[in-house]
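As promised in the previous annual report, we have extended the structural survey to additional targets. Below is the entry for Cytochrome c1.
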Amino acid sequence: MKKLLTALLFAPLMALASGAAVHLDKAPDVSGDNAALQNGAKLFVNYCLNCHGASFMRYNRLTGIGLTEQQIKDSLLFTADKVGEPMRVAIRPDEAKQWFGATPPDLTLIARARASEAGPGADWLYTYLRSFYRDDKRPTGWNNVVFENVGMPHILWELQGQQVLNHETHKLELAVPGKLSAAEYDKQIADLVGFLVYIGEPVSGLRKQLGIAVLLFLGVLFVVAYALKREYWKDVH
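The corresponding structure token record, generated without further manual editing, is:
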């Protein structure tokens, strides 16, 4: 019992240490690029929304990245009837658990949830989605360097191609090319990750703008207050 309690006590520390050992690549910042975010939304709907939902995000919030409601209806509205509905998952949770061994998580807050001492959540996602490799020992035929023994298959393998893990160098090597070059695939993943970051906090851009405006206002207020203070106390010795 004592050994069990000790193991449970130090399990979080061991998990953190093992996670920090994985090198995370820096995710490109596409937060101000609406074209990139729109491409990320397209990738999410076409590849991710089959298994993963974004149930805290409504379709009409995509107007924040420059899309009109008509464009959303025509190109992205596949799992709902109205643009005011959440981005629900297409697959049934019980079927997903049977196929993959666990229900695929909702991705609305995944970028924030994956943030750690190893780096921002965007960096984790960017590295993870580029680190799948062929593994015949896994039920899906895929494994991942960042998330070992992951239950998720590599849904973007046609774009990236098929990688294998060189067990001597512990590096990934491209065995079968995909439809895109490495640089093109990285750009697609950057757009997708940028969209996942956006849905975690759609008002992030507005929040930052308001923060700058408040700081500027406080700066002006400080100058006025200081001038008023000098004027009030100029005759006091």
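The chain has nine helices and six strands. The two ends are 76 Å apart (CA to CA). These points will be discussed at the next consortium meeting with the crystallography subgroup.
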